[in-house]
């Protein structure tokens, strides 16, 4: 029987388990009480990293999770991480970059309703995440509502429904129905080797959602802050205002001249950024902006955090590496 380690971080999934300090053994007993079926799938152990709302998850938690995986990598066949839904894609993306040489499944899951409630999606998500973690899937994935997605391609799209997540620009890695369909052709083609955990992240990034009549003065003021990289979530295929009095192009030029990175993502869910399609985008490209292409905004942000953590103030190296896939986050 395969061995699976549950790495608990908190979120809606474990809210019913809230009884002060949560010890690993108590957590497993609660899980087995509510979902005894998992004992038929694998031997289950657990580790508690945190028991918090995922809004409070940060770099320090990403590192703790990666350390737990690294310390237990040889003992377990797969890892399942119950996690709050709100920041799940950020954690999944960070782990996909951190776990260099990963050859085992690392699957984040959670729920829209707590595990203890009668009408909950937590049981289904946990059972299937555990079963998928027994397969040879060398990815950091997110399992929700019967689909396994590549974590760094996933977005939370639904607050209300059980189908909370989707992967707009990349197909699922697996689907669960009467049977289990594994789509190996969609797996990341990783080179073999030993797991190597890369832990350095910079928190000197900033994201701005562009909207009509945004004052450039607000953006220019950000250049006084210690920000290494900006992600501008633009319109459509990456378009920004470029007319006199409203143009954001001077901000991009100033930022790039100061050695900052400016990356353009899109507010659209499907499709990719193409800064050559319209003049509004081309002006940003000519000013030195990078295109996020088909990366999600979340993946672009975490990628900048990761690259600046890895290369420090070497902006040229960060720009060079931005377009290269680290873990299948960009086509």
UniProtKB/TrEMBL annotation:
Keywords: Hydrolase
EC number(s) per entry: 3.5.1.1
Record-annotated Asparaginase/glutaminase C-terminal domain positions: 204-319
Keyword Hydrolase: yes
Domain of life, per lineage: Bacteria
CDD domains, A to Z: L-asparaginase_I
Keyword Cytoplasm: no
Positions of the L-asparaginase N-terminal domain: 3-185
Enzyme class, first EC level, given as a word: hydrolase
Active site positions: 85
Protein known as: asparaginase
Organism from which the protein derives: Candidatus Kryptonium thompsonii
């Amino acid at each position: 029987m395969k061995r699976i380690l549950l790495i608990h971080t908190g979120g809606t999934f474990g809210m019913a388990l809230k009884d002060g300090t949560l010890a690993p053994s108590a957590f497993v007993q609660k899980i087995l009480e509510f979902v005894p079926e998992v004992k038929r799938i694998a031997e289950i152990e657990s580790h508690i990293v945190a028991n918090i709302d995922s809004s409070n998850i940060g770099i320090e938690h990403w590192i703790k999770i990666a350390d737990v995986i690294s310390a237990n990598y040889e003992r377990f066949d797969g890892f399942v991480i119950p996690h709050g839904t709100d920041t799940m894609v950020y954690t999944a993306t960070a782990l996909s970059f951190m776990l260099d040489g990963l050859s085992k499944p690392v699957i984040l899951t959670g729920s829209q309703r707590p595990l203890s409630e009668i009408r909950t999606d937590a049981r289904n998500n946990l059972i299937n995440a555990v079963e998928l973690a027994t397969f040879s899937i060398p990815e950091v994935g997110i399992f929700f509502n019967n689909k396994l997605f590549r974590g760094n391609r996933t977005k939370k799209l639904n607050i209300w429904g059980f189908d909370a997540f989707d992967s707009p620009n990349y197909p699922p890695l697996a689907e669960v129905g009467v049977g289990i369909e594994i789509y190996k052709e969609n797996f990341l083609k990783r080179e073999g080797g030993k797991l190597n955990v890369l832990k350095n992240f910079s928190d000197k990034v900033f994201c701005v959602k562009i909207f009509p009549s945004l004052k450039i003065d607000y953006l220019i003021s950000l250049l006084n802050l210690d920000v290494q990289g900006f992600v501008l979530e633009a319109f459509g295929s990456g378009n920004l205002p470029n007319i006199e009095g409203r143009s954001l192009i001077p901000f991009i030029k100033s930022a790039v001249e100061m050695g900052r990175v400016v990356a353009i993502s899109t507010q659209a869910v499907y499709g990719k950024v193409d800064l050559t399609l319209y003049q509004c985008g081309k002006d940003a490209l000519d000013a030195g902006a990078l295109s996020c292409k088909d990366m999600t905004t979340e993946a672009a942000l975490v990628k900048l955090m990761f690259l600046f953590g890895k290369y420090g103030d070497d902006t040229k190296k960060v720009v060079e590496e931005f377009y290269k896939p680290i873990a299948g986050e960009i086509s």
